[in-house]
Amino acid sequence: MTPGAPPPIGPEHAALMARGVSIMVGSRDANLRPHLMRAVGCRLSADWRRATLLMPQGGGSEVLSDLRDNGRIAVVFSEPSSNRTLQLKGHDATVAPCGPDDAALAERYVQGFVAEIGKLGFAEDLARTILSRDDAVVAVHFTIAEAFEQTPGPGAGEPLARTAR
Fold it and tell me: Model-level pTM?
């Protein structure tokens, strides 16, 4: 990233990422086979250039293995009640142990997701099943290299315009 350049996302996107949205994490292996899993939380650096995702260790062993192998990551944040969707990509993802505040972050995220899909008539049990994390959670850190609008409509797939944030 160019020194002094604006961050790849703006305040509206940062706010979306902090809510109880659906977070899907994609990767690929050396043979270009894709893998996918859900994250159970996200936090951004103060400058909105780096993201940390909380991911169940056992449920996404293929994704985590891919990230350890090549660091390439694609993440989709989607708000079910509005279909507002954002995609981020990175090339330097690393997998690390969680920090001391991450369990609380994951629980706040789950509560937000429960409330979000509750707007659509889905029960809390469904949200907790979707986001099941019976095993250890790890942190995945990456620099946001690319950001795209993915909300259905005429702008879907377009890179985020720096002036439109």
Answer: 0.91
